[in-house]
Structure formats: structure tokens, C-alpha cells
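Notes from the pairing session

We agreed to fold both candidates in a single pass and log them together. This is the raw record for the first candidate, unedited. Please don't reformat it; downstream parsing expects exactly this layout.

Candidate A
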Amino acid sequence: MPLTDRDRALLDFEAEWRRHAGAKEEAIRAELGLSPARYYQLLGRLIDTTDAQEHDPMLVKRLRRLRDARVHERALHAADAR
């Protein structure tokens, strides 16, 4: 399914959010009208799509790499807790 306007807005925001003044969470609410939790849910699903990868391959690769590192780190902490 092709990217929606909202999908493109999420990807574009993530690519450019550092240019916004203030905290990222405030910018998410102001620019996109979403709660930060919802934004991250949507973005997490979006970066797994081929269309997102085609839209901005460098951004999607970076976000996947960051997500994979967080998952790996959580798994290490869970293993240490046993």
C-alpha cells in the first residue's frame, strides 16, 4: 500500500525534527497533532514497510538500527536479571 500523507509527514518530521525549537514531544504535538506514544507506535510500524524504505532509505535504516539496538539491549538486561 502506498504511503499516505500522514506516513510521509511522520517520516519527514523524524528526518527534520532537530530543526524544531523545543522538545521533540512538544513538536510532535504541535506539528502532527499526535501524542508522542501514538507517534512512536505509527513510526515503528511504518519503518517496517517497503514504501517507507523507498521514501527515505537512510532514515529508515537508521531508525531500524536504533530499534534493533534497543531490543538487543533489553534482551541483555532481561538475561542478566535471571
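Candidate B (folded immediately after A)
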Amino acid sequence: MTNKLGVGIIGAGNISAAYLRLGPMFKGIELRAVADLNMDAANERAKEFGVRAETVDSLLASDDIDIVVNLTIPAAHFEVSKNVLLAGKHVYSEKPFVLTLEEGAELKALAEEKGLRVGSAPDTFMGGAHQRVRNIIDSGEVGKITSGTAFVMGHGMEHWHPNPDFFYQPGAGPVLDIGPYYVTNLVQLLGPVARVAALTSTPAPERLITSQPRNGEKIPVGTPTTIHALLEFESGAVITMVTSWDVWQHGHSNMELYGEEGTLHVPDPNFFGGEIKQTKREADVELSGEWEHPFSIPNDGDNANYRCAGLADMAIAIQEGRPHRCSDALALHAVEVMTSILAAGEKRGFVEMTTTCERPAPLTPDAARELLA
């Protein structure tokens, strides 16, 4: 029987509610406390979900907390994760994992020194839809993937988020905020990236907030908001990826992968489920219903939402002594891909990767069931 590791959260913002709500669905973890620099926010979130509120320091000192989930803003991820490791606890970070390779290397060395684990979102690649695509690719049904496209485009966060400022500063933007879902899924499907090229632009130097409570306020933009990138994978596949917050409407698929024997239409990697379409050469393939993956089942309105799957997998992996799927190596490689895309956009050229990683182990339907409480 897997024991439950105690989990504490640092950062009581919007995303903390999802972790606290969905955590009880999984084996291996028990959400016990939430901390924030703003104790009012911590107290409110703790009361909402029946956990205790802590200061950051008291959470790091708590004997019943084994893993700390780092839900702070991206610019604070490295410092907070480092402090968690120094306190002798495992850390699982929201994306992006860190903002530079140097930060990632330091966390890796510190974790190895202390015998601790580091993990990072996103875990949506563990969803039933994306694992079925993985299974189709690995089976050879569409042949070797030679190329593809990925599009994530919209008109930003200022129309819904109460405090959208950080989305438009270095460390965020569409590449580092939404890109992790796409890059991580591409890596788990195709393997590591060898080099990238990009063109970037910032059409609007400031954005108008239309959400409450700051409706009408303008915020500066300090990072590119439209990025057209080319990703060459070690496998030889070449993917065009476009991320933008300057688009009102478009008709592109989220992700398409072109194999020697057919095409795969992949649903939005920001979600666990969605519709897959497959062809055999030019003819449509009717996918059977035999792939009954639990992380494809809608549980949040029409969506399949299994956030915390990566956290639970890490907790169980710690106890079983096996690698966890949302690893620091995978997350750091994704960070290098994304930051290199921005660097390539600045210099209008190619950037070679210096990191690589293994593809995470596939999550079969049976393995996914083993994660659920």
C-alpha cells in the first residue's frame, strides 16, 4: 500500500484552487497546508479547502510536509524551489520550471546532493488523449513522424485574469506561459529537440485590462507576444510552432503530426483529453473505443482535468524508487527549447540545444488507474 506524502503549497493564487480541489483524487499525496506572502490570501484559500494556512517559513519547517508545490510567479520559481530543497523537502514546480539553464543546473545539483526529487508541470501530456497519440506513434501505425505544426494563439490574458501584468514580462509571454504544454508534449511524443530558429515581434507596447477589478488600466509589455518558431528534433522531425497573443481568431488545428504513413490531429496539449483524428495516408481511420484511459473521462464540465497527476506520480515514484514522468530533465530541456526560441528571435538565427532528455515512460490506462485513489 502506497503511503501518502504530505504536500504543502506555496502560492495561494488562482492555480492553487485546482491543486487543492483535484489532489484528493490521487493516491500517494495528501494536501495539508497552503502558504503565501499574503497571509490573507493563504487564510482564505485554506478555509475554502479545509487545510491549514502557514507562513512560508513555517511551511518549510513543518515535519508533516514532504513535498512542496511551488505556485509562485515564474520569476520566483528558482528562489522558492531552491529554498524548498534547502529545507530538505522535495519540490514540484508549476511551469515554467525555471527561466535559465543555470538555475536548472543549480537545482539539479542541490537535489542530488540532498537526495531529493524535483518535478515540474505541465502534466497534461499524461492525459488520455496524448497518451493514445503516443501509443499510435510508438506502434508505427503512421510511420516515422517527419514534420508537423503547432499553433497556440489568442488575444492574451488581460480580458479575464485579475492581475495579468506578469504574463507580459520576461519569464512569461506566450512561449513560456502556454508553450510548456506544447513543447513538453512534442518531446514526449517525438523525443528531444536538437535546434531551433525563430522570428519574434511585439506589436503592442502596452495592453488594456478589461477584466475586474482593474478594468481600464494599461500595463507595459516587456516580452515578445508573437513568435514563429522552427523546431528540429534529434529524430529528424521538423515542427513549425506559432505562439501569439495578438490574434483575434484563427482556423489552425492545435497540433498536427505528419508521418510517412499517415497524419495525426492532436488535441490541445493544454488539456488532458480531446478528440484525436488519424489517417492512413489520405484516408480517415476510425479509432476504436478500446483505449479506455481514465484521464480522458470528462470530470470538469466537458473537460478531462487531472491536474496533480504528475505530482502524484512523483510521490509514488519516490516511494517505489523509479523515475517520475514530470522530471527536472524533461522540464529543463523544455525550458532550453523555449528560451532558445526567444534568443533565436533576437538574433534571427538558429540556436543549438545543449541539453537533452529521455522521453518519459508512457502512461498506459492501467498505470493511470493506479494513480487514482
